[in-house]
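Table S4 entry, UDP-N-acetylmuramoyl-L-alanyl-D-glutamate--2,6-diaminopimelate ligase.
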Amino acid sequence: MKLSDLLKTIQPVQVIGNTSMEITGVNIDSRLIGTGHLFMAMRGTQTDGHAYIPAAIDKGAVAVLCEELPEELRTGITYIQVKDSEDAVGKVATTFYGDPTSKMELVGVTGTNGKTTTATLLYNTFRYFGYKVGLVSTVCNYIDDQPVPTEHTTPDPITLNRLLGKMADSGCKYAFMEVSSHSIAQKRISGLKFAGGVFTNLTRDHLDYHKTVENYLKAKKKFFDELPKGAFSLTNLDDKNGLVMTQNSRSKIYTYSLRSLSDFKGKILESHFEGMLLDFNNHELAVRFIGKFNAYNLLAVFGTAILLGKKEEDVLVALSTLHPVTGRFDTIRSPKGFTAIVDYAHTPDALVNVLNAIHGVLEGKGKVITVVGAGGNRDKGKRPIMAKESARLSDRVIITSDNPRFEEPQDIINDMLAGLDKDDMQKTISITDRREAIKTACMLAQPGDVILVAGKGHENYQEIKGVKHHFDDKEILNEIMC
């Protein structure tokens, strides 16, 4: 593609050099630059891409996009100066990969909890309808039925547009994408065309990056602010921030709720460990999911599918066939008569949701044992809150290691224990080794009890000092229970 064509969607401050040259690739990582590429310098949270301009040119870059021009301008290299490289990178990447989101219906799902489940269930629902569908999610990306491993909830703009381009080329008519607060703040989704956006909920998370809840909220809200006039917004009316999210959106706004009058109204009629009986818009529906939080997720899927043109009756049939997402309220039955649940819950609110769901089914007829930790090098403020909520809603608590990353596991555990009072401490123990913690929970459990192993869900590793060691909560539970 000619450089002049690549620049049509952005407004450079200035261009120095020839723009009629052919560009064979675009990248933000100087190590991946090849002959004839455009290197785009971004200021990241760890490094500044401007420092790698010389290296990119040495590797074959013929053009450079940057916010600040280097002191030395090399002969034969075209320099494109822009005001905001984060915004420009997404738009250029979209153009280079053929504007993939103009060829399919892309729906973004954002919120603190429920993004993965909602996006994945939408993907499965539309595959059930017979469409080729794409998925961008925390667990795995999919181009129809082909899995593509994932590193981040929302990839960088180059990886993301390359992935979406492959989806469009393979004939995907729909794509569903988790939209993280980081990706919105860092403009990784710049240039993409969304047919709609879904808001699940907002609770405390990622304050290590956003610093305040208000900044976190603003990042999420920005997604809806920038949706085009022809798109739809589907927001959770029961969340106090539900209508805040959409108050400045040009999109058509719809609501879903389990408590109030809304466009898509739901109600839980019955709940068991095998599933729930729901009422959606006065239609009964049996599903294989547990908990109020999953009722919200399914209601969001129901509403989104209808807003994308599907008939209510057809959507209800599709929802009845769906299975829970890996690592989300994953239930395992023990031969000893107790139940173990593996869940990704790694925020205070997510923990409360899962524990409340367990109590809703148990109805006081069994004890709850919670195994929980907190990730290292992340928001420390949520650690004591997670411990406190676990103690409040559990009969026994085992505080253990999660992904300590570059922190000492015991330091993280101490931060969590600081949230507990004397009564809480009497039913709490700490075991640094996560496998031993899970094993201890299984030894304590009696027939009819429920063990919740929270925090890692689908993850099959434990990250310690920068190294990912194989570790799978569900795998370990199955080994111990046999």
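The chain has a mean pLDDT of 94.
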